[in-house]
Amino acid sequence: MTREETGASVARRQLPEAPAGFGHIRRYWDKPHEAFAAKLLPGEFYVTLNDELLTTVLGAGVAVCVRDADAGLAGMLHFLLPQEEGAVLGVAGGDPRGRYGDQVMSRLLDNLLKHGARADRLEFKVFGGAQAFAETADLARRTIAFTQGWLRDRGHRAAAEDLGGPFPRKLIYHPTSGLTRVKKLRELDNDTLARRDRDHLRSLSSGRRRG
Question: How far apart are CA 5 and CA 74, in angstroms?
Fold first, then answer.
C-alpha cells in the first residue's frame, strides 16, 4: 500500500462527528462492512446524520428502526421496559433518565423531527422480544405487545418485523437503504445477554431510588 493509500484509509476511518447529545454512544469502524457503526445497549437510542450502520444485540428487549428516506435521516432504539409499570425482576417505579419504551420512542421521534424528518414519511421496522430466558420471557411478551400497540395507536404500520421466538438476535440496520440483517443466535451457550438485561433492569431501579 502506498503512502497516499494509507493516508486515505486513515482519513476514511476518522469517525464523523456525532449529533449533539449522542457522544456517549459507542461508535467505531466496522471492518467487515467497511462502514462506521453505532452500537446500542438497552435503554439507548441514536439518530444518524451520516451513512453509518446501527447495530445492537437483542435478548428480551425490542429494537425499533425508524427512517425518513426523503430527508436522509434514520434512528434506532433498544429498550426493555415498556412503561413505568410496577415491579419487574425487583424493579419498581419510574426512571428519571427516561429509558422506558414510551419515553425513548418519544425522544427518538422528537430528534428525527427536529433534524427535518416528517411524521407522515416515517418507516418503522421492529425486532426482538426473544423468550430465550425464563426470567424475562413474560417481559419479552409484554414488550412486544407494547411496541405493536404503540405503532397501531399512532396510525403506523411496521414495514418489517421479527419478534418473539426462542432465540436472541444480532441486528444490523443500514439507514441509507433501510435494509436490515438479523442473525438468530441459536448457539448461545452462556447467560451473557440475560445478565446484561438483568443488570439494566436493576440500574433502572437504582436510578429511581436515587431520584
Answer: 31
All residues at 6 or more sequence positions from 112 whose CB lies less than 8 Å from its CB, including other chains: 47, 66, 68, 73, 74, 75, 122
In the numeric block, which cell numbers belong to residue 173? 440496520
CATH, residue 62: 3.30.1330.200
Q: Is residue 176 part of a domain?
A: yes
Cell numbers describing residue 133: 430466558
Q: What are the tens digits of pLDDT across the range 13-65?
A: 788 888 888 999 999 999 999 999 999 998 899 999 888 999 999 999 999 99
Give the domain extent around 73.
33-210
E strand spans, 31-132 = 35-40, 44-48, 53-58, 62-68, 73-79, 123-128
Cα 126 to Cα 66: distance, rounded to the nearest angstrom: 9
